[in-house]
Specification:
mainly alpha; two-stranded antiparallel ribbon; AzlD domain-containing protein
Length: 110
């Protein structure tokens, strides 16, 4: 990759910033143009945060040392699955975090 000059780098950053802003603004402005969101869209909106969280966490849980590791030797996966089970059973954020992190630390010590 060739080195970009300082003015070129700032131009690229500015253009990408504008493109990002326009993309995000299009959703807000688009809702104003179409009015209310359709019921089908509103019905799936509560699941968006969960889907984003799962997409962020899954690679860290499933991959160990750069390769796919779906086994009981993967401490992160074991602790994540236990935390998931506790979250489903108790719906307590504090208990989920404490149990998941506690188990992860315990597994890493062993």
């Amino acid at each position: 990759m060739e080195n970009l000059s300082s003015p070129m780098m700032w131009t690229v950053i500015a253009l990408l910033s504008i493109a990002t802003y326009l993309l995000r603004a299009s959703f807000v402005l688009g809702i104003e143009l179409i009015g209310e969101l359709p019921p089908s869209v509103r019905s799936v909106l509560p699941f968006v945060p969960l889907a984003v969280l799962a997409a962020l966490a899954a690679p860290d849980l499933a991959f160990a040392d750069g390769s796919l590791s779906i086994s009981l030797h993967n401490e992160y996966l074991v602790a994540g699955l236990v935390a998931f089970g506790i979250a489903r059973k108790t719906e307590s954020l504090i208990l989920t975090v404490v149990a998941g992190m506690g188990l992860l630390w315990l597994l890493q010590l062993l």
